[in-house]
Amino acid sequence: xxxxxxxxxxxxxxxxxxxxxxxxxxxxxxxxxxxxxxxxxxxxxxxxxxxxxxxxxxxxxxxxxxxxxxxxxxxxxxxxxxxxxxxxxxxxxxxxxxxxxxxxxxxxxxx
Amino acid sequence: xxxxxxxxxxxxxxxxxxxxxxxxxxxxxxxxxxxxxxxxxxxxxxxxxxxxxxxxxxxxxxxxxxxxxxxxxxxxxxxxxxxxxxxxxxxxxxxxxxxxxxxxxxxxxxxx
Lengths: 111, 112
What we know:
The structure holds 2 protein chains of 2 kinds. Chain A is mainly β.
């Protein structure tokens, strides 16, 4: 059974800092990996989707990398802003195309 | 576009009562999903519909039923609610099973 782990569970950084969020998964036979953002009391917003054949994807200040063989992904956020404060979730899609989610990293960016 | 909409936003039930959570999407997506989110457990898939006319069990289907009413709508029914079903329920949709998923705002359900 696929297991997805996100470390750390919580992270607090000063505004302007570059930061990295980590995601690891136990079964490397994935179809794709998705990063989401969740604001308190809200639904999830998709940030990036990386296909299993890709190494990275970029969107604005966000860059996600994927190392399928080692079962790891990172989400890099450049020049963090208070508006980036949210919970970040990664999810992997396996052969059945079902998403398995990690428990998330709660990010606080201090002004 | 409204995206994915869910009703109701909040609901309180007594043990044994039944209810249906409604979900609709206006993006002409083929695939739809129901998840529950619990503290410390992350999101877990309850049921999904890869395409209109099909439904399949996810990780935690017990105590739930679903109906893919048409391409737009996917409902989740609790026949006899239990306190263990207290959770936040999210509906999502995607163009295909392997595509980006788009989530609704969620329904907060409390079962007393």
